[in-house]
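Entry for the shared binder. Reason: the reviewer on the internal report wants the predicted structure included alongside the sequence.
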Amino acid sequence: MQLAMIGLGRMGGNMVRRLVQGGHEVIVYDSSADAVKQHAGTGAKGAKDLADVVRQLTPRRVVWIMVPAGAAVESTLEQLVPHLTRGDILIDGGNSNFTDSLRRGEALKAKGIEFVDVGTSGGIWGLELGYCLMIGASPAAFQYCEPIFRTLAPPEGYARVGPPGAGHYVKMVHNGIEYGLLQAYAEGYEILHASQDFKLRLDQIAKLWNHGSVVRSWLNELAERALSRDDQLAAIRGYVEDSGEGRWTVEEALRLDVPAPVITLSLLARLRSRQEESFGAKMIAALRNEFGGHPVQTK
């Protein structure tokens, strides 16, 4: 099947490779000419700009956008949509806010263009193992694009979860759950690392837990992998970014009056990780000293 991929970063680039390996004809474009050249050398066809992307596609055109959420998606759509025609299909496979996807879906529907939002999970391992695809689309658009999804995903690894907007909604909650899981593993391993009674090998424990334990998981397999390289994680700074979905999940939980303390606290822990030193912690120490004479540590 023929399609275009716009955005050749860690995810988009590997998805192109998997699609080409699966026999699809892929037109590629990225703001980096070097990235386009690299992928053109592996079986894809390069485009010089977005207009050229559309020119190389045969109607009914399928264009997959794999760029960062927000302004980058908006800018890409503004430049791309004038070149598309009725019946074409535009897929956003990034981590866009579902409310943006709802808005974009309605705007494109008015132009006769099908919008498909695909929540994509799998990270850098997707090339080898396949991607889990959470798809928001009309039944007709889903059916037309299904050969693409089948190639990108492992068996049982893709599904239409609802109309446009639903794919990014499900991916948002998926990533909120991920926040909580990561935080639970982080806290458990930190307790083990801090033990004063035992000098524990964290790589050994991670490996052990991956065999029959109720906490075994792919995430813990990755923990085993990381700890086997450096049991102390000495080369890594404890600064944790977030790409938005955790925040949006918490906002949605508040909007729906759904208690989500684990996901909420895991988000706040990420914010704390970005502070070299917390002024709030200083304030607590100062107040404890004021009301109770509790000692404070000074620099």
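Summary line for the report: The longest strand covers residues 114-121.
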